[in-house]
């Protein structure tokens, strides 16, 4: 019996199985013989000895582990985003924008000091705490957060926007007792990864059409 290893997430992007190694913060794609064996495992088809030999490679690196009880290897799913939370123009020196800037810097520091794996675990714990307290839906708080983080874009390069901003925005919304989704996604040909915050069918500080190009690999 196989199940996904601790610290890994996966999805199927087209005909490719993609894995996110949270501990090392990198993505992996399977070569054809291993891809075929893994596909049979996911589809719950009968495995022959060659398939098991191939899957041993995933066991050796911790992507798969063996268990007495079979665990379905089901990739995450989210309703595709159709719109963006409307952001208003605000002063770059307003208190909400300065707070968003500090939150982005804090998210970057957390990733550097603790790594992606520990950061994700902390976010999961925080979300469960808010879920236990009870969600409070306030559209004005969503709009304020979207406006504040949108205003910080000019201060960061495009390469530095995605993950720290999404984590900071996610934390900000949790602090307001919202329960949004933090979504990691991938696409192929060429390979690229993206991270965004979504509530229902709406995304924050991002293009809904752009996020639909990515297949979710991890959802918090």
Q: How would you characterize the overall build of this protein?
A:
With 220 residues, the chain is of the alpha+beta class. The protein folds into two domains: 2-66, no CATH class; 83-219, no CATH class. Helices cover 42% and strands 21% of the residues. The chain is built from six helices and ten strands. The protein has helices spanning 32-42, 49-60, 95-133, 139-151, 162-175, 208-211; strands spanning 2-4, 8-13, 16-21, 26-29, 64-66, 83-84, 181-187, 192-199, 202-203, 215-219. The strands form three sheets. The chain has a five-stranded mixed beta sheet. It has a three-stranded antiparallel beta sheet with strand order 2-3-4, with helices on one face. The chain has a two-stranded antiparallel sheet with strand order 1-5. Helix 3 crosses helix 4 and helix 3 crosses helix 5. The longest helix has 39 residues, at 95-133. The protein is elongated and about 65 Å long. The mean pLDDT is 90.
């Amino acid at each position: 019996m196989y199940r996904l290893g601790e610290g890994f997430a996966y999805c199927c992007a087209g005909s490719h199985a993609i894995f996110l190694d949270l501990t090392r913060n990198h993505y992996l794609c399977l070569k054809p013989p291993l891809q075929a064996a893994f596909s049979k495992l996911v589809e719950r088809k009968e495995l022959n000895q060659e398939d098991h030999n191939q899957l041993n490679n995933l066991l050796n690196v911790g992507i798969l582990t063996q268990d007495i009880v079979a665990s379905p290897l089901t990739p995450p799913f989210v309703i595709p985003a159709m719109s963006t939370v409307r952001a208003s123009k605000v002063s770059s020196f307003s208190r909400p924008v300065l707070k968003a800037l500090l939150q982005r810097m804090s998210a970057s520091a957390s990733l550097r000091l603790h790594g992606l794996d520990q950061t994700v675990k902390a976010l999961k714990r925080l979300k469960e705490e808010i879920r236990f307290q009870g969600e409070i839906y306030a559209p004005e708080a969503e709009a304020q957060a979207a406006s504040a983080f949108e205003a910080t874009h000019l201060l960061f390069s495009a390469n530095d926007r995605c993950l720290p901003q999404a984590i900071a925005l996610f934390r900000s919304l949790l602090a307001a007792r919202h329960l949004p989704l933090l979504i990691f996604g991938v696409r192929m040909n060429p390979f690229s990864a993206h991270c965004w915050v979504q509530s229902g069918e709406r995304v924050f500080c991002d293009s809904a059409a752009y996020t639909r190009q990515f297949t979710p690999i991890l959802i918090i």
